[in-house]
Amino acid sequence: MKQKGIDHFFGKHIWVIGASSGIGEACAKSLINKGAKVALSSRRIERLNAVAEHAAVDQTLVIPLDVTNNEQFQQAYERILSTWGALDLLLFVSGTYTPLRADQFEFQMAEQTIEANLLGPMRAVALVLPKMLKEHSGHIAIVGSVAGYSGLPKALAYGPSKAGIINFCETLFYDLLPQGVSVHMISPGFVATEATAQNDFEMPALISAEEAASEILGGIQRGEFDIHFPKRFSRFLKFLRILPYPLYFWIVRRFVKI
């Protein structure tokens, strides 16, 4: 059974969490250009206001949000419902990334990563699910990463947070498909953003944030659950997942020059 896509974004009510930079900003701008009504959330209000400048009057809501703060989440969602009365798509893009290996491991950094990258999306989903379930409609899209497929260098906290997103989305899909609520698991490879600018190694198949936004929105429109890109890279990492561990670790050590 195939889940529902979105025929068009014009007039749809969409909440983009993480809209101030990178993939989230690119998605927000594209949705605005397509005529959607977009609630823009992140911690940086000045960046959100800059994105909102691309929109028509009353097309956007600027709602500052720390994804680790339960009270701010509740207030943000209440504002969306009080203004629009509806939410067609939750697009959670916000995330944090700090390169981390075992000889530099800090529990506090790992805790902050899990709090933002895994518990943040869970907070958002917990808010929007009751209304979507009641109406048997709606879309939940969460940006994870191909780093969640299997263990990779410098991803000692980031990788587990994204692996958790994969499991979370898979279970959501199983539970929500019969209820008419669509789930979209988004796994980008390397995308040129402020986060990946921290990397001191060559990033294969690097794409722009605009290219990533096009892949994401196209996949949501088609009703895809597993939205992964760029395919030449993500398919290779999917293949690595099924290999025996000795072969997997040999390939990673040989080809991942980190």
Your description of this structure?
The longest helix is centred in the middle third of the chain and has 29 residues, at 107-135. The protein is globular. It has one domain (13-255): NAD(P)-binding Rossmann-like Domain (Rossmann fold). The protein has a seven-stranded parallel β-sheet, sandwiched between helices. It starts with 12 loop residues before the first strand and ends with a helix. The protein is 46% helix and 13% strand. The chain has helices spanning 22-33, 45-52, 70-84, 107-135, 158-176, 209-221, 231-241, 245-255; strands at residues 13-17, 37-41, 60-62, 89-92, 139-143, 182-188, 226-229. It has 258 residues and is α/β, with parallel strands linked by helices. The mean pLDDT is 93. It contains eight helices and seven strands.
Tell me what the CATH architecture is: 3-Layer(aba) Sandwich
Write down the overall geometry: globular
Q: What is the number of helices?
A: 8
Task: Please report the total strand number as a whole number.
Answer: 7
Q: Any low-confidence stretches, pLDDT <50, length ≥5? A: none
In total, the number of domains comes to 1
How much of the sequence is in beta strands? Answer: 5-15%
User: Roughly what is the average pLDDT, rounded to an integer?
Assistant: 93
Strand adjacency order, main sheet: 3-2-1-4-5-6-7
**CATH hierarchy, class:** Alpha Beta
Major sheet size, sense and barrel closure = 7 strands, parallel
CATH topology-level name: Rossmann fold
